Amino acid sequence: METNRETLLLAFPLLVLFALTEACVLIFIKKQSYDWRESLASLGVAIGGHLLRFATVGLVGSFAYSAWQYRLFTLPSGHVAYWPLLFILEELLYYGFHRLSHTCRWFWATHAVHHSPTKFYLSGAYRLGWTGAITGSFIFFTPLFLIGFHPKDVFLVIGINLLYQYWLHTELIGRLPIFDWLFNSPANHRVHHATDAQYLDKNFGGILMLFDHCFGTYQAEDEKNPIQNYGVLPAIHSYNPIKIALHEWLRIAAELKNSHGIKARFFILFGVMVN
After folding, report:
1. Residue 236 near residue 195, CB atoms below 8 Å
2. 217 near 203, Cβ under 8 Å?
3. How far, in Å, CA of 189 to CA of 173, rounded?
4. I need a labelling partner for 206 at 20 to 30 A (CA). Which of 179, 181, 216, 249 fits?
5. Residue 208, Cα to own-chain centre: how many angstroms?
6. pLDDT per residue as tens digits for the range 145-185
């Protein structure tokens, strides 16, 4: 997802340092193996994504400010309700966008990149898709601009949402029972990334689990049925950042080539996926 470019660029070196710290803890304290190839692949995808966001940030920004010109109101950022309302509405729109990204193949082609790691490491947090500007993910937040929230404030909240989710990508932190119920947490996000049948397509919230409870998509991590697998179906089996970033698009292209008729091709691109 396109978000506050400066925030991500400033935070990125620190995120890599935290990922390296996690690796050291797993290797030297937990005495576990660590898949460096997977982590380096995530780093390669992240670097490529940052370079592409430089090329598309103008498009996203222009769209946001153009939409804001047609706002219904001009909401004062100094009002006591401004930031809480922006936070809740952004969380609702993020939930909807995130859930659709798991059901509509057009958006899944970008989001699948983030789900491709088979190991649940912090480095996977910055393995993000390259084609969000092409698929139009930023359009989902248009209502915020039209209501009257300033684009820079919207991008700030989206950036905070994304940065918050970084710490969720680890197995070092166990369940946090009371916290887990309301907030997104490592346990909740492990469920989200799992490919086990009972965990598929659950926990779409960014910071809160509020809308997952409201719409019936919340699933707690079950200690009696621990997660066995992470990744995407079918698995990619590659550490090449370019192949990882484009794997679903390549599958779509192959299916389009072998399909016939506008209707069939439309459903390949925009059809609802059923797991």
Report:
1. no
2. yes
3. 11
4. 249
5. 14
6. 999 999 999 999 999 999 999 999 999 999 999 999 999 99
For residue 216, count other CB atoms closer than 10 A to its CB: 8
Whole-number pLDDT of residue 59: 86
Phi and psi dihedrals of 77, rounded to 5? Answer: -65, -15
pTM: 0.95
For the record, the structure tokens of 270 come out as 């925009």
* Euclidean distance between CA atoms 143 and 159, whole angstroms: 17
Q: Where are the domains of the chain?
A: 5-270
Q: Which amino acid belongs to residue 156?
A: L
Distance, CA of 207 to CA of 91 (rounded, Å): 7
What count of other Cβ atoms lies within 10 Å of the Cβ of residue 40? 13
Residue with tokens 């929230």: 149
Tell me, what DSSP letter sits at residue 119? S
Please give the structure tokens belonging to residue 29.
């304290």
H runs (alpha helix) in 136-240: 142-147, 151-164, 177-182, 186-193, 210-215
Q: Give the helix, strand, coil percentages of the chain, each rounded to 5.
A: 65, 0, 35
What is the SS3 assignment for 272?
strand
Question: What are the residues whose beta carbons fall under 8 Å from the beta carbon of 112, sequence distance 6 or more?
Answer: 129, 232, 247, 248
Q: How many CB atoms lie within 10 A of CB 13?
A: 9
